[in-house]
Predict the structure.
Amino acid sequence: MPAFYCELGVPDTPEGRFEMVGLHVALVVRRLRTAGEPGRALGQEVFDSMFADMDESLRHIGIGELSVGKHVKRLARSFYARLAALDEVLGTSPRAPLAQMLRTNVYHGGAAPSARQLNALVSYLLTAEAALRAQGTEHLLAGQLHWAPPGDPNSKTPGEGT
C-alpha cells in the first residue's frame, strides 16, 4: 500500500518493502498459531510462500544464483527476529517497545520518521493485530483476511494530547 511509504515514511526500498511484508506476515502467523494444528500448518505455508516469493524477487533484481540462498537465509533470520520481537512487545504494554523496534528496523536506512509517522505505524499495527484476533478462525483458514488502511500520520493518535 503506497500509504506506508508516502504518508508513514517507510523507506520505499527493497528492505523497507521486506519489512512491511514481514510485519504483516508475522501478524498473520501469530494469529494462525491460535488456530490449532490447521492454523500452524497454514502459517507454515504462508511463511514458505513468502520466502519462495522473496527468492524469486531476489533473482529478478539481479542477485546471482550462488548468492540467493545466503540472502534468503539472512531475510529469514530477520523475519524470525521481527516475529520474536512482536511476540514480546504485543504480549506486554506495547507502544514504547513497538515504536523502538519499528524505528530500528522498519525505518533503518531511510529518513528518520516524524513522531506522528511512527505513532501512526504503531497504531496501525496494534489495530491490525486486534482486527486479526477478532476475525473468525474459519475465515482465516479460508484465506479471508481483512486489513484496515494505515492511519493518517497528521491525525492525533489515541491518548495524544490536544
About this structure: The helical segments are 2-6, 14-33, 36-60, 65-90, 95-105, 115-134, 137-141.
